[in-house]
Amino acid sequence: MTIVSRSVAAALASVLSLAETASAGDASRWEESFHSRARLVAGGASAVGHWVGIEILLDPGFKTYWRDPGESGLPPRFDWTGSTNTGAIEMSWPAPTRAEDAGGIAHIYSERVVFPTRVRAADPGRPIDLHLNLEYGVCKEICIPAQATLDLVLDKGDGPHRGTIEQALALVPRPQALGAEGPLSITAVDPVAADKPTYRVTVRSPEGATLFAEAPENWYVSTSRLLPGGHFTITIDERPKGFSGPAPLRLTLVAEPRAIETEVHLDASLAAR
C-alpha cells in the first residue's frame, strides 16, 4: 500500500483545484436529458465579440431539430434571460439533414450539433455571465421535449474550443443572391401551372443536394427532392386567408459540406389562387 504524506496530498489537492479553476471558463458542465446532453463551450474573444458554442450530443439513433423542424418535431428554443453584461447575442444554424419516416419529412441533426453564437459585451471591460435555458426536441420514434440550464462566464483571451466553433461555422449556409455564379447556387424561381401555387426552383448543384424552404408563419410549404434537370418544386399547401403577395421565402440549398441561403419573394399572383 502506498502512503501519501499530508504535504503531498495537499499539493495534489491544490493542483487539482487550480486545474478546475483553469477550466471553469472553458465550458459549462454537461446537463443530461432524454437520450442527450448539452453544454456551452467557450471559443474566445475577438474584435466582433465572444464566440460560444451551444453543443448537443445525442444517443445513437436519436435526433433533434432545425429551426424549421419540418412536418414533425420541435424546434429548439434559446432563452438567455438571466445573463448579465450582454449586448447582442447572434446565433447561427448549421445546415440540417432531410429525413423521412412515418411522421413525415423532418429537418434534423443527428449524433451532434454545435450552434455557433457570437455574444457582444455591454461593457467590454467586464466579463460576460451567460445563463441559457435551452429547450429542444429529442426523437427516435416519438418526440420528447428535453431541457438544459447552462451557465458560463466569458472573459478576455482565447477559448480552447475555437476549433469546434469554426467547424460549426463552416456548416452554416452562406448568404447568396438569386442567380449568383458558383458550383452551388439557386439560379431561378418560376411559377408553374398546378392545382396549388407551385414554383420551380432551378439550381446549380451536384447530385444529392437538398433544398429547404421556409415561408412566413402560418404557411405550410412542401419541397420535392432534386428532380432530373437540376430543379426542385415548391408547393404552397396552406397560407393565411386574405393574403396579398409578394411573400418572402428563405431557400437553403445543401450539398455537403457546403450550403447556401437565398432570400426570394414569391409573386403577387398568389393572391388570385
Characterise this structure.
The protein has 273 residues and is mainly β. The protein folds into 2 domains: 25-172, Sandwich (Immunoglobulin-like); 175-272, Immunoglobulin-like, CATH 2.60.40. Helix content is 10%, strand content 51%. The chain has helices at residues 6-23, 162-169; strands at 31-33, 36-46, 49-58, 63-70, 77-79, 86-91, 97-101, 104-110, 112-121, 128-139, 143-154, 174-175, 185-192, 198-204, 210-214, 220-223, 231-238, 247-255, 258-266. The strands form 5 sheets. It has a 5-stranded antiparallel β-sheet with strand order 1-2-3-9-6. A 4-stranded mixed β-sheet has the order 12-19-18-15, with no helix packed on it. Strand 13 (185-192) and strand 14 form a beta hairpin. It is globular, with a radius of gyration of 23 Å.
Short key terms for the protein model shown above:
273 residues; mainly beta; Immunoglobulin-like; 2 domains; 5-stranded antiparallel beta sheet; 4-stranded mixed beta sheet; 19 strands; 51% strand; disordered N terminus
- Helix fraction bin: under 10%
Q: Please name the fourth-level CATH homologous superfamily of the largest domain.
A: Thiol:disulfide interchange protein DsbD, N-terminal domain
Provide the spatial order of strands within the biggest beta sheet: 1-2-3-9-6
Report on the biggest sheet. Answer: 5 strands, antiparallel
| CATH class categorisation of the largest domain | Mainly Beta
Q: Label the overall shape.
A: globular
**What's the rounded overall pLDDT mean?**
87
User: CA-to-CA gap between the ends?
Assistant: 85 Å
Q: Report the portion of residues in β strands.
A: over 45%
Helix- and strand-based class?
mainly beta
Total domain units: 2
Gyration radius from CA atoms, angstroms: 23 Å
- Tally of alpha and pi helices: 2
Low-confidence stretches: 1-24
